[in-house]
Amino acid sequence: MARRVKRVFFTLAFFLGVSLTSSDDIKETEATGKEDDGRVEQEALTWPPIGVTLEDDPSLWPGHLKPIGANVPNKEVKVLNGFPPPEVFLRDYAIPSVPVLFKAAVTDSVAFKTWNSDEYFRQFPEAGTQKHLIETRKKEIRTQPPTDMTLRQFLDRYSKEDIYMVEGVPKFLRKDVPMPKSLLCEPLTRMLVDTVMWFSSGGTKSVLHNDDVDNINCLYDGKKELVFISYQRYRNKVTLDHPEGSYSSMDVDAVDFTKFPGMREVEYHRVNMSAGDCLYIPYRWFHQVNSYGRNIAVNVWWEHNLRQYVEALSEGCGDLAEDSTLNDFQIEPPSDSSEQGPLMELHSALNAIKDKAVTLEEFEAIVKKDKLLTELITWTPKCSYAVKEMFEAIDRNKDSVLSQEDLEGLTDEMEEELDEVLMENMDDIMNIKNDQVAQLREAVAAEVAKGQAESYVELVKKLLDEGRTTIGDSDEVIGEHGHQEL
Ligand SMILES: *[C@@H]1O[C@H](CO)[C@@H](O)[C@H](O)[C@H]1NC(C)=O
């Protein structure tokens, strides 16, 4: 039930996560090479700043109304030559959740060798027939439906107009795109959810946002500059004031500390990509992306699940062909038929058990088994509270059991309202889960840094087995901070 929650966030994050600057900005930047495009000037930095504290007026903090991360020392992003094997990727990056740049990882690919030319794309008959969704420049994409055009029509227009293609990789191009070697692990390939092609003439500037999935992004043409903020460390400092789309309304060229005071306290990891490079963008890490010049990227999204990553390491990866392409995998993008809410799933769940009435305890057991929650580390009283809220909303005749009767005669409006309550409460539990996983990662990283754990993964395994998120006796109450009160 409520798989939809994830899908809503996921889809919106990817549609709203990007807005284009005008093509005039692009030209100016390229012509003058001036530092007025959000790139941060290198200054001599004193950190933390002297003579100002977090108690002072936030506007006094250095960096106020400057580009994101200005006046803060950069943290680096690890760089590897090419992709490591999946086991290494899981152990060192996906399980601890840290970004990494795979330098020149796809320079041998057909996409890298051919996608720098529009003529290559034009030659495919499908480029003249298949329609694709093309985003038009709009701050709020929700209110402006994308238009559709063929790839050839897009190619005629993209360098002159503010349009960009953000779409599943067209079928006829999938064979050109290698499956990142670090994902060639059977348990991981079962977790793939979507691949998307990002094609523009450059000058895109995204908002600060995060995604509900893990991601490897490969760049086949152009340059990108990214800035990351750690989710596990700073999830309570970064305000995504548009939670429905997992993004922040902050102006990334002029960050207002009076509106976003938490931004004074975070650290920034910066990384640049050139054509042929791939980047691991970890689940929920906050990021902001600028692109320069004709830009084509493809990213592969897969479901994040710490428990499954740990299991994949012990299961082993099998032997998938090294030269696998996107064409070799059946990747099912999340269905976005908006009719399919948690209520529909509930309907079918109740249908399946026919005449039986479901008690609160039984309902809680059903929710606990939800696929979305397999990553939850321990069930807390707040989880039970959310379940109770859902139960009471569904139990319209107040007979303290759920049955078909409760769902009979609902108007569309009532269904929508009920769906809303279900999604909100599932979301509360998801937030508790996210917090637990982040807390565990921080605790393990600290232990490893102190030299008190021989292996990150072993310690993660141990804590998962014990249903704990902290180390030592003082197991602090989890899922209590940072999120809205239940
Ligand atoms: C990224 O590229 C820009 C522009 O060339 C440069 O100013 C900046 O220092 C680079 N950043 C990193 C992390 O390499």
Give a verbal description of the structure:
The protein has 2 domains: 25-328, Jelly Rolls; 340-466. It is 33% helix and 17% strand. The chain contains 16 helices and 13 strands. It has helices spanning 3-16, 23-32, 86-94, 110-114, 118-122, 126-129, 151-157, 186-189, 231-234, 306-315, 342-352, 360-368, 381-394, 404-407, 412-449, 456-466; strands spanning 18-20, 74-75, 78-81, 100-103, 131-136, 147-150, 163-167, 192-200, 204-206, 214-229, 268-274, 278-281, 286-302. Strands 2, 3, 4, 5, 6, 7, 8, 10, 11, 12 and 13 form an 11-stranded mixed beta sheet that branches. Strands 1-9 form a two-stranded antiparallel sheet. Helix 12 packs across helix 13 and helix 13 (381-394) runs antiparallel to helix 15. The longest helix has 38 residues, at 412-449. The two termini are 20 Å apart.
Rg over CA atoms: 23 Å
What's the β-strand tally?
13
The CATH fourth-level homologous superfamily of the largest domain: Cupin
Count, helices: 16
**C-alpha geometry:** globular
Give the averaged pLDDT, no decimals.
Answer: 84
CATH class of the largest domain, named: Mainly Beta
CATH structural fold name of the largest domain: Jelly Rolls
The ligands bound in this entry are: 2-acetamido-2-deoxy-beta-D-glucopyranose
Q: Which blocks of ≥5 consecutive residues have pLDDT under 50? A: 1-42, 138-143, 477-486
Structural class category: alpha+beta
Q: Describe the sheet with the most strands.
A: 11 strands, mixed
User: Any idea how many domains?
Assistant: 2
Span from first to last CA?
A: 20 Å
Q: What percent of residues adopt helix (DSSP H or I)?
A: 25-40%
CATH architecture title of the largest domain: Sandwich
Beta-strand content estimate: 15-25%
